[in-house]
Design brief:
single chain, alpha+beta, BirA Bifunctional Protein, domain 2, binds adenosine monophosphate
């Protein structure tokens, strides 16, 4: 038997209904905030992700799926959504009208990580990017969108952690003091942090290995090194969150796993003991250099990404059932070949009119077909035998009331439509 690759999984029905529900909810929330969908390739030229030789993030240095295609082009399966969106923004010159471009995406990402609960090698993200303005209110809008999604999904115990990395001037000052602090403890640093010390010392604060050591706790804090503009900017973000009644916790160790962030960074963390280290369901921040790094004009941006699997797991945990009961309008039981053809015709009329129908292609016994009508949660079961067929009639059973009658086979569509519209005037059918 050929099995799925390590770190991947199949989403089977009815679990796939949860995904559909989540995707619908994402789309609804994005509409409220006026974010439009963008779909970019799952693979990109490697330079899109391997832009900066000084990048120290695990995702870029250790986890990408890189390969050469048959024409020896360097290709990378996207490990995240932002860089591809930024590439598309530049390539399609979405900046020309000088307005704020608000985009969202959903789809699979690939990282060669150690698989465990809530961490896969192929996983899905939903993300938003707002490009073209440095306004701190936009940072707050992105966080507010995330909070709205959490609310719409009915998740519990989610907190927003926020921090600022300051502007370039503040970060440069902070970098210097961090380097001199951590240099004193060089011998105690893990191998990754030694590398970060040279290339991106801020990322040391993100280290999961050295995190609990004393020299880590005594490290200088960014807020002591922010210039006035950075402080004011961060205060405006916080004021905008307060203004919307959004709760947050300032976490001055938060720097996020990617190297391109500046100013605001944030994470949404769910308090579920079983999640362990995988309790971050989403996060993001401001990135003002990425567009120019990819060859576009200097364009500020802010974005956020959620792990779809973790959102679904968190909804399960909160007892929020994202899996709606699936129903069909009509299950047709045909007794004999001629009846099958006649049913097929009626089914086609119904489906064209927006009613969902099923029949038994395995030609099981009458009893097993009734069972299948049941397991499909059919609102109506229609039975066509020789007698009815000869008279152009069909027997129809309303499974809600258990009442039965015989109607003209041509009338099936109108009959069901009238009944379902009366039972559910706001429309369970597509009419
Ligand atoms: P990141 O792009 O690393 O900031 O991740 C954003 C979100 O994607 C995280 O908060 C997780 O919810 C999710 N995520 C990241 N990596 C994985 C993974 N390997 N498996 C499942 N979800 C992931």
């Amino acid at each position: 038997m050929i099995t799925k690759p390590k770190g991947t999984y199949d989403v089977l029905p009815p679990e796939s209904l949860k995904w559909e529900k989540l995707e619908t909810t994402v789309r609804k929330v994005c509409k409220l905030y006026n974010y439009k969908e963008i779909r970019t390739p799952i693979f990109e030229s490697s330079e899109v992700f391997h832009r900066d030789v000084n990048d120290t993030s695990d995702m870029v240095t250790k986890e990408t799926y890189d390969f050469k295609d048959r024409s020896e082009r360097g290709i990378t399966l996207r490990p995240e959504g932002t860089a591809g969106v930024a590439r598309a923004y530049v390539e399609n010159k979405l900046y020309v009208d000088n307005s704020v471009t608000k985009l969202f995406y959903m789809g699979p990402m690939f990282r060669y990580e150690r698989p465990q609960k809530g961490r896969n090698r192929q996983f899905n993200q939903f993300g938003v990017e707002a490009l073209g303005s440095d306004n701190p209110l936009l940072d707050a809008e992105v966080i507010s969108l995330g909070a709205s999604l959490i609310r719409a999904l009915g998740l519990k115990d989610v907190s927003v952690k926020i921090n600022t990395l300051g502007d370039e001037e503040s970060r440069n000052k902070y970098r210097e003091v961090l380097v001199s602090h951590f240099t004193k403890y060089k011998d105690c640093l893990c191998e990754d942090c030694l590398n970060r010390l040279e290339k991106n010392p801020l990322r040391i604060l993100d280290c999961k290995v050295d995190h609990d050591k004393d020299f880590f706790k005594t490290a200088p804090k960014i807020n002591e090194y922010l210039n006035d503009a950075s402080k004011e900017r961060f205060n405006t973000v916080l004021e905008a969150l307060d203004n919307q009644g959004l709760k947050y916790v300032i976490d001055d160790n938060l720097v996020r796993g990617l190297d391109y962030y500046s100013d605001t960074v944030f994470e949404l963390v769910v308090n579920i003991p079983e999640f362990g280290a995988q309790n971050v369901i989403g996060g993001g921040g401001r990135y003002n250099k990425l567009i120019s790094q990819l060859g576009g004009p200097e364009t500020p941006g802010v974005g956020m990404a959620f792990g779809v699997e973790r959102l679904i797991m968190a909804a399960d945990y909160a007892g929020k059932n994202l899996q709606p009961k699936e129903q069909i309008h009509a299950y047709f039981i045909a007794l004999g070949k001629k009846a099958e053809m006649a049913c097929l015709k009626a089914i086609n009329v119904c489906r064209i009119g927006g009613l969902s129908c099923e029949m038994d292609y395995k030609e099981g016994s009458l009893k097993s077909q009734f069972k299948k009508a049941d397991s499909n949660n059919a609102l109506f079961t229609l039975i066509l035998g020789d007698n009815e067929l000869n008279e152009g009639k069909i027997n129809i059973k309303d499974n809600t009331t258990d009442s039965q009658e015989t109607i003209n086979i041509e009338e099936v569509y109108n009959y069901i439509l009238t009944k379902v519209t009366a039972q559910n005037p706001c429309g369970s059918c597509n009419k």
